[in-house]
Amino acid sequence: MKVVFLEEVEGTARIGEVKEVKNGFARNFLLPRGLAAPATPDHIRRAEARAQREARRQMALDEGAQTVAAQIEGKTISITARVGEQGKLYGSVTAGDIAEEVAKLLKIDEFDRHKVMLEEPIREVGAHQVPLKFTQNVEAVVEVEIVGEGGPPEPPAAEAETAEAELEPAEAEPEPAEAEAAEAEPEPAEEELTEAEQEEPREEQAEE
Q1: From 5, 52, 107, 177, which residue has the greatest number of CB atoms within 10 Å?
Q2: Distance of alpha carbon 165 from the chain centroid
Q3: Burial, 93: exposed, middle or buried (Cβ in 10 Å; 0-12, 13-18, 19+)?
Q4: Could you tell me how many helices (H) and strands (E) the chain has, helices first?
Q5: Inter-residue contact 155 to 90 (CB < 8 Å)
């Protein structure tokens, strides 16, 4: 089936293009979603007008993106991460981490992490060339320098306190012999009372 595309379908066609596609692809996907229409003269005129508007809009986007891309092209971003042996990172540096640093470099609140074309997270120290895609026509490359910081990551405070508590020696319990001796010792108050009771009969005999 011959159709004219009313919207851009990535990897297939742009707005206004007329193409021959499989009937099932057209009827089950393109036509129900309004992405394309049968290539009639009326639909083709509509698609061409939309394509012209889209071209003007894209040109404006590209102009703004080129200004931003020029500010960052060839610049270096440094990110510090903990490393172990052989320069391997504990964890990894992601597109989100790079986007945060790009935002700082551009002095903006946020940079879309989806514009960071990182194939996979970075797991090694050193310099890495990372492309940034501002629009479909404008890109820039930034160098991301991963700087190693020795030692494994510190455990959370709660885990550290638990580990310290496990290492503290338990208080020694008294030996059985010492405990028995402590129980056998008479209390001083009871001894004084016994002696006083013994002296009372002697005083009564002396008075008689």
Answers
A1: 5
A2: 30
A3: buried
A4: 6, 8
A5: no
d(CA 39, CA 151): 65
pTM equals: 0.58
Interstrand relation of 18-20 and 2-5 (parallel, antiparallel or unpaired): antiparallel
By CB atoms closer than 10 A (0-12, 13-18, 19+), residue 169 is exposed
CA nearest to 84, candidates 146, 155, 150: 150
Please give the pLDDT value at position 88: 79
Name the helix (H) or strand (E) containing 103.
Answer: helix 95-106
- Segment 26-82, tens digit of pLDDT: 999 999 999 999 999 999 999 999 999 999 999 999 999 999 999 988 899 999 888
What residues contact 140, with CB distance under 8 A and at least 6 apart?
69, 70, 72, 73, 131, 132, 134
Domains present along the chain, CATH in parentheses: 2-68 (3.40.5.10), 73-150 (3.10.430.100)
Which residue in the block uniquely carries the two structure tokens 């903006």?
108
